[in-house]
Write a structure and sequence with these properties.
This protein is of the alpha+beta class and 579 residues long. The longest helix is centred in the middle third of the chain and has 24 residues, at 297-320. The two termini are 33 Å apart.
C-alpha cells in the first residue's frame, strides 16, 4: 500500500525465514542428544567384533559382492549412513586405520561410550558442553601421561619373543588366528625386510609427543632410531586362490604375474643381471595425428627401414649392457622380441610402475628412461635366482634369493577369495602393529588391562579435582571400562562379576603399594582372557599391545567426542531447486 501508515507488529516483528522451507534443523540440546544417539548406533554395529570371541559381519557391497569380516574399518566402510554425526564416527575408524592400522573397533566403541557418559550431564544436570569438553581434555592429558608410565620398553631386534607375543595378541582377535604362528612369522619377516634407515638428509627422530611434554622423545634402539617402513609401496600382497594356508610365504625378493614375451626365452637363470626400463622397445609413434604423403614406392621401403633400424639400434644398446633379463613398463615390438631372444635375453613387458620400483629396490637396479644412457651401475645384481612358475592357471615370474632385499612379495594361498581378502586385512593389521613398535618400541598389557588401569588411576586423580569439572573427569574414567566390559560380554561370562573382580584387582595394587599420593601410578597387568572370560595376569598370558595404538585410540576417541559435543546446530536440506 503506497503512502499508508507504517504497519506495526507486536512482539519482535514478523518471523524472518532465512532458511529454505524444506530444510530440517535441530538446535540446542535435541541436536546434541541426537548426535550422541547416532554415535552409539554406529558403535552398536561393531561392538560384537571386539576380542578373540568376536562375531563376523556379512555385508553386501554396491557391486553385489559379499564382504565377510570382523575388521571394524572394513565393516563401517561398507555401511551407508545419512546422519552427519554417524558419518564423522566412521571417519574416526578410517583415520585410525591409516595412522596405526589397528584398534579401529576400539576407537568407535570408546568414542561412543565417552559421548554416552556425557548424556546425563546434558539431559538432567544441564551442564554446558564447554565445561564437559574442558574436563574431557584434562582427562585425556592425564590418561596419556598414565599410559606412558604404565608402558615397558622393548628391544625390537633382540626381543624376538616379545615381538611374537605382540603380533599374536593382534591376530588372536582376527579370523586368521588359527594360523597364528605362520602369520606372526610372515608379518615380522615382511616388516623387517622392508625396514631401512632413513637417509641423512631426511633423517628425523621418531617418537611420540605426550601431553605432559612438549618435546618429542626419540626412540633409543641401536640401529633402529630412524627407520623408514613403507609397507604400502614395498610389501606387495599377491593373493592366489587355491592351495592351502600352509603354502603362504614371504619371498626373499619379488614376484609378478607376467609371462615372457617370447616362448624361446630362458625361464630359469641363476644370478641374473637385471635391466629395468620405462621406455617402449618399439618405434615411437607421432605425438598427435600424423599424415604422410608418399609418392614413390622406395620411400615406403625407406620408412619401414628407418623404423626397423630405430628398434635394432635400441636393442643393440641394451645387448651392449649384457643383461640376462629386461623388464619394461611399456610395450616390446615383435622385432625387438626377435633381437632380444637371439641375444639370449629374457624380456617382460607392460609391468606396473609400482612393481618396477619394487623390483628395483629388491635387486639393487635403477629404472632407466633411455636406452642410450644405460650404465653398468644401473644393472641389478642382487637377485640370486630367476624362474618362471605356474601357480593355478597363471605363470608367475619369481625373482628370489636376493642378497639384501628391501622389498618383498607376500604370497597368500587359500580356499576362496573371501578367505584371502580377510587374511590379507588381518596381515595388514599385524604388519602395521610391528611397524608402530619399530618406530616407538613401548608396550602396554592388553586384554582390557591397560584400560582398567587407566580407569582406576583416573578415578584417583579425579578425587583431587574441585568444582564442576570433577564429575565429567570421573565419567571418562568410567568410559575406559567399556573395553574390558565388551570383551567380557563377547565371551559370554557374567559382565558385572568379571568387571567388579578386575576393578578390585587394580585397586588392590594401589593398597598393596600404600600409594597415598593420588598422582602416583602403580603398574598392574591383570586383564581378561578373551577366550574364556577368566581374569589372568597379562605378564604370564603374554598379550601386549603397542603404546602408539592405544595412545592414538584414546586421543582420537576423546577428541572426537569433544568435537561432537560442541555441535549445537544441525542443518540438513536439499540444495536442488524446484523443477
Amino acid at each position: 500500500m503506497q503512502g499508508g501508515p507504517p504497519q506495526r507488529y507486536g512482539g519482535g516483528g514478523p518471523p524472518v525465514l532465512v532458511l529454505n522451507q524444506k530444510t530440517q534443523r535441530q538446535t540446542g540440546r535435541p541436536a546434541q542428544l541426537a548426535n550422541i544417539r547416532a554415535a552409539r548406533a554406529v558403535a552398536s554395529i561393531i561392538r560384537t567384533t571386539l576380542g578373540p570371541q568376536s562375531m563376523l559381519k556379512m555385508l553386501l557391497d554396491p557391486m553385489g559382492s559379499i564382504v565377510l569380516t570382523n575388521d571394524g574399518h572394513a565393516i563401517l566402510r561398507e555401511v551407508d549412513v545419512s546422519h552427519p554425526a554417524a558419518k564423522s564416527m566412521i571417519e574416526l575408524s578410517r583415520a585410525q586405520d591409516e595412522e596405526v592400522g589397528d584398534g579401529t573397533t576400539s576407537v568407535i566403541v570408546l568414542a561412543a561410550e565417552v559421548l554416552g557418559q556425557a548424556e546425563p550431564f546434558l539431559r538432567e544436570d544441564n551442564v554446558h558442553p564447554t565445561v564437559l569438553v574442558s574436563a574431557y581434555t584434562k582427562a585425556l592429558a592425564a590418561a596419556l601421561e598414565i599410559l606412558e608410565e604404565q608402558a615397558i620398553t622393548v628391544d625390537v631386534v633382540a626381543d624376538k619373543e616379545w615381538m611374537k607375543k605382540l603380533v599374536q595378541s593382534t591376530l588372536s582377535t582376527k579370523f586368521s588366528s588359527r594360523w597364528n604362528d605362520k602369520m606372526v612369522e610372515m608379518a615380522l619377516q615382511a616388516v623387517l625386510t622392508v625396514a631401512q634407515p632413513l637417509s641423512s638428509s631426511s633423517r628425523t627422530e621418531f617418537g611420540m609427543t605426550n601431553a605432559s611434554k612438549s618435546e618429542t622423545t626419540p626412540t633409543k634402539i641401536p640401529g633402529l632410531q630412524t627407520m623408514e617402513i613403507d609397507l604400502k609401496r614395498y610389501a606387495k600382497v599377491e593373493k592366489i586362490p587355491g592351495g592351502e594356508m600352509e603354502d603362504c610365504e614371504v619371498l626373499r625378493g619379488v614376484m609378478f604375474n607376467k609371462d615372457t614375451v617370447h616362448s624361446s626365452m630362458r625361464r630359469r637363470i641363476e644370478n641374473p643381471r637385471i635391466l629395468l626400463l620405462d621406455t617402449p622397445l618399439e618405434y615411437k609413434k607421432g605425438e598427435s595425428q600424423t599424415n604422410m604423403e608418399i609418392t614413390q614406392e622406395e620411400d615406403w621401403s625407406a620408412l619401414l627401414k628407418i623404423e626397423e633400424d630405430y628398434v635394432a639400434n635400441m636393442c643393440q644398446e641394451i645387448i651392449a649392457a649384457k643383461p640376462d633379463i629386461v623388464i619394461t613398463e611399456k610395450g616390446v615390438s615383435d622385432l625387438a622380441q626377435h633381437y632380444l631372444a637371439k641375444a639370449n635375453i629374457t624380456a617382460f613387458r607392460r609391468l606396473r610402475k609400482t612393481d618396477n620400483n619394487r623390483i628395483a629396490r629388491a635387486v639393487g637396479a635403477t629404472v632407466v628412461s633411455r636406452t642410450d644412457e644405460i650404465q653398468e651401475s644401473d644393472i641389478g645384481l642382487g637377485c640370486g635366482l630367476f624362474e618362471m612358475r605356474k601357480v593355478g592357471n597363471d605363470w608367475f615370474c619369481y625373482l628370489t634369493e636376493c642378497k639384501d632385499p628391501k622389498a618383498c612379495t607376500i604370497v597368500l594361498r587359500g580356499g576362496s577369495k573371501d578367505v584371502l581378502n580377510e587374511v590379507e586385512r588381518n596381515l595388514q593389521d599385524a604388519m602395521q602393529v610391528v611397524r608402530n613398535v619399530v618406530n616407538h618400541p613401548k608396550l602396554v598389557p592388553g586384554g582390557g588391562a591397560i584400560e582398567m588401569a587407566l580407569a582406576v588411576a583416573l578415578k584417583r586423580r579425579g578425587q583431587t579435582l574441585q568444582g564442576v569439572q570433577q564429575a565429567p573427569f570421573l565419567a571418562v574414567a568410567d568410559a575406559m571400562e567399556v573395553i574390558p566390559r565388551t570383551l567380557a560380554q563377547n565371551c559370554g561370562v557374567s559382565v558385572i562379576r568379571t568387571i567388579t573382580q578386575l576393578r578390585a584387582k587394580h585397586a588392590a595394587a594401589y593398597d598393596d603399594d600404600n600409594a597415598s599420593d593420588a598422582s602416583k601410578v602403580v603398574r598392574c597387568t591383570w586383564g581378561i582372557n578373551g577366550e574364556t572370560g577368566q581374569l589372568v595376569d597379562m605378564n604370564d598370558y603374554g598379550i601386549w599391545e603397542p603404546v602408539g595404538v592405544k595412545a592414538q585410540t584414546i586421543k582420537t576417541a576423546i577428541e572426537s567426542a569433544c568435537m561432537i559435543l560442541r555441535i549445537d546446530d544441525i542443518v540438513s536440506g536439499s540444495k536442488k531447486r524446484d523443477s
